[in-house]
User: What shape does this take?
Amino acid sequence: MAVINVERSSGEKQVVTATAGQSLMEALRSAGIDEVLAICGGCCSCATCHVYIDDTFLEHLPPLGATEDDLLDSLSDRTARSRLSCQIRLTEDLSGIVLRVAPEE
Amino acid sequence: MQSRQRGNMNNVDVLVVGAGHGGAQVAIAIRQRKFDGSILVVGDEPELPYERPPLSKEYFAREKSFEQMLIRPARFWEERHVMMALNTRVTSVDPIARTVDLDDGRTIRYNSLVWAAGGRARGLSCSGHTLKGVHSVRTRSDVDRIVGELPQTERVVVIGGGYVGLETAAAFVKLGKKVTLVEMLDRVLARVAGVSLSRFFEAEHRAHGVDIRLNTSVERLEGEDRVTGVRLGDNKVVPADLVIVGIGIIPAVEPLLKAGAMGANGVLVDEYCRTSLPQVFAIGDCAMHANIFASGAQLRLESVQNATEMANVAASVIAGQPQTYRAVPWFWSNQYDLRLQTIGLSIGHDREVLRGSMATRSFSVIYLKQNKVIALDCMNTTKDYVQGRALVVGGHAIQACRLADVTVPLKKLIEEVVA
Assistant: This one.
C-alpha cells in the first residue's frame, strides 16, 4: 500500500492510500480527488490528470513518455514537475510521494 | 445538511437518469460545487457507473479488470450521499408534476431532472437477428457474453464499420480469430471521418487479415438456434460462430419526448443543456445541441468527453453557477498499434490535407472548410493533435501547402497567423 500526500487544487491537503497495482490517477480518482477528471480513463489520450510531483520523488518515477510529453505541451501551466498521473504506476518505493493537483485548464 | 436529510428515495432535489459517464459526472460535479441537495441516480444496468471505452479494448482483451473500470468505488457514492437505483428503468416523465415513474413501481418527485440515458445499441431487423451468438458491444454484460463464447468461436462477422466495429475487429484479430467486417456504405467510418482516413484504416485492417466487404448489405442471419453465418446482399454466405452488430445507437429519449420535450433523434438542448421542459436537462450521447464547432449545426456527439463536459455544464446550472457549453470536441480510438486522436469536427469539410505520409503510419489529416481548419485526425502523432487544437479554436485560414509541410510544426503556423 502506497501513501500519497496530495495538495488539492483548492489548497486543501489530503493523505490518500493506494492499493497495489493502481496508477496514481486511479488512486486519486478512487479517493474522490474529483478535480482530476481523467476523461480518457488512463490511456494517455488527453491531459486531464495533470499533477505536479515534488522534486524528491521526481527522479524515482518512470521516465516521461513521448506521448505524455506531447500531451503535457498542451497545458499552459506545465512545469518541470508536471506529469500525467495515469502514466505513473504506484509501487512500494513511491510510498510517501508528495504532489499537487494542477489547476483545471 | 438540511436538504440532504429531507431527500429520500421518492423525493429528491436532483434526479439523474442514466448511470454512464454523463450520469456519474453530473453527480460528481454537483457535489464538487458544494450543492448538498439530495441526488438519486437511476441506471438500467446492474453495475455502478463504469467506463465504456475499455469494453471494446482492454476489458475485451481481459487486460483490465472490471473494478479498474469503475468510475468511482462504491464507498465514494455513499460518502458523497449519491443514491443509486440500479437495474431500474424510467417508464414515464410528468413535467408538470415533476415526477418520474420507474419500472419497479415507484414514483420519484424531482426539482431538477438530468437525462443522461445515452442510447441503446441499434439492432438488426433482418431475419435471424435474435439468434444466439449475435451481440452488441455497448454494456459490460454484452462483452461478458462475448468473452464467454470465445472458446467455441473461430470465425467472427462484424457488421458495421464505425469505431466500435473497427475496435472490436482489432480485438478479435489479437485473439487469433478470423474476422470479416461488413459495411453497407462505400467506406468505413463514413459518418465520422474523411475518405483518406477511411482508406487508411481499411488497409490496416486488411493487412491484419480482416476481410472487409464494403458496399455490402446484410440479407439475413443464418442458423437455427445459434448463428452459423451471415447472408449478404450479394447472396454470398459468410460462415460465422459469432456476429457483432456495431451499427450505432438509438438515443434513449422516448419518455422525455412523450412528455413533450422537443427533439426527434435525441432531445434538443440549449447551451446550458436545458431541454424545452422546465428544470429538465439532457447531456451526453442523447443530447441534440447546436455545436459551435460545426457552425452551429444541430448534432449529437457520442463521446466520453462530450458526456463529461455537458455533465459539468448541467451541474453548474443546478448548483447556481451557470456556465455554457463551449468545449472543443475531441475523441480517441486505439486499434492494433494505432492511436488515433481527433480534435474538432470534420463534418461539412470541403477539403482534406494530408500532413505526413500514411506509409510511415504517423500522419495527420487536416480538414478544411472554406480554407479554415475545422478538425484534425491525428494518427500516432500526438504533437499535431496538441498543436492543432489552436488552429481549430481560432478557425484560422492557412494555406494547404503550409499545413502539409511536416518540417514546420503546427504551432509555428499559429504563431505566424497571430503575429
Notes: Chain A has a mean pLDDT of 94. Chain A touches chain B through 19 residues (CB under 8 Å). The longest helix of chain A spans residues 24-30.
